[in-house]
Amino acid sequence: MTTVVERLQGESPKFSVEFLPPRDAEDEKVLWKAVRELEGLDPAFVSITYGAGGSRRDRTIRATGRIAQETTLLPVAHLTAVDHSVAELRNVIGWYAAIGVRNVLALRGDPPGDPMGEWVAHPEGLNYADELVALVRELGDFCVGVAAFPYGHPRSPDLDTDLKFLLRKLNAGADYAVAQLFHAPEPFLRLRDRVAAAGCSAAILPGIMPMLSPRGLAKIVELSGADLPVEISRRLEPYADDVASFRAEGIDIATEMCQRLLDEGVPALHFYTMNRAKATREVLSRLGLVTRA
Ligand SMILES: Cc1cc2nc3c(=O)[nH]c(=O)nc-3n(C[C@H](O)[C@H](O)[C@H](O)COP(=O)(O)OP(=O)(O)OC[C@H]3O[C@@H](n4cnc5c(N)ncnc54)[C@H](O)[C@@H]3O)c2cc1C
């Protein structure tokens, strides 16, 4: 199977998409509609997040397997260390290998129920993502990605410490990183440049999620860990009660930011899709990266 690194090669900018594991049969239909709509646009890869526990995890594994076996897409399986012994992690990784999935995004994960709660490692498990990177690497010929945080991970005391641990993951054998959501290009570009200045050539992909509604915007702000820049608030505020205009402005803002990132030479844009294809298609079409929206 092709690797993410291979798919990112070449001069032309690429894009990739992220999906969530479906919660039920209805959700599964929504996911597969988006998968099929985006398949024709030839994303570099599609990644599927790893559920916080139990059945959600089985659905991640099933959806990843289906994408590997029933589509032309390159799946990247997310995996977290949450509530897993090393033996269990080995099992999941082995299962991915058995169905031909060779691309893994290695994450530490958060305490279930409360992302900022106390982190308690499984007694026979791992503490940090760099250990999972090393484990995946040890188990086979995998291409491994990790998470990066343009505003710093919420648990990191400062950006220097955050960079140190990102470099540790990359030096443990990760091939690339995907960034958490951000609202303005500068913090992402600074992080990318600091990684390069530290002598690391791994690609850092920007994570993009257009602001489509006031509720979606609140989620983006929460996940990014940073306040919205004043100029973006000013652009969106007038449309707080006008769903269509809010969405249109959100697509404009995302397109402008993506264009700036492409001008700055990012190899690919990674879209957090929430299992819907429309906004991603619109932004890609506006950027001229696909011919039909
Ligand atoms: C692109 C992306 C995809 C994601 N996908 C998922 C998913 O599928 N499922 C899910 O549950 N969550 C997912 N997350 C959320 C992620 O699991 C959380 O943000 C988690 O808190 C951090 O994971 P990490 O892999 O960055 O952890 P780590 O890199 O281990 O970092 C965790 C914290 O510990 C610090 N740290 C790292 N190494 C050390 C060390 N050796 N010593 C001391 N401190 C250290 C870091 O600075 C950071 O503050 C995703 C996040 C991103 C950005």
TrEMBL record:
Molecular function GO terms recorded: FAD binding; methylenetetrahydrofolate reductase (NADH) activity
Pfam families per UniProt: MTHFR
EC nos: 1.5.1.54
Involved pathway(s): One-carbon metabolism; tetrahydrofolate interconversion; Amino-acid biosynthesis; L-methionine biosynthesis via de novo pathway
Catalysed conversion reaction: (6S)-5-methyl-5,6,7,8-tetrahydrofolate + NAD(+) = (6R)-5,10-methylene-5,6,7,8-tetrahydrofolate + NADH + H(+)
One of the record's GO cellular component terms: cytosol
Tree of life domain: Bacteria
Cofactor: FAD
GO biological process annotation, one example: tetrahydrofolate interconversion
Record keywords, A-Z: Amino-acid biosynthesis, FAD, Flavoprotein, Methionine biosynthesis, NAD, Oxidoreductase
UniProt cross-references to InterPro entries, sorted A to Z: FAD-linked_oxidoreductase-like, Mehydrof_redctse-like, MTHF_reductase_bac
UniProt record similarity statement: Belongs to the methylenetetrahydrofolate reductase family.
Protein name, entry field: Methylenetetrahydrofolate reductase
Organism classification: Bacteria, Bacillati, Actinomycetota, Actinomycetes, Pseudonocardiales
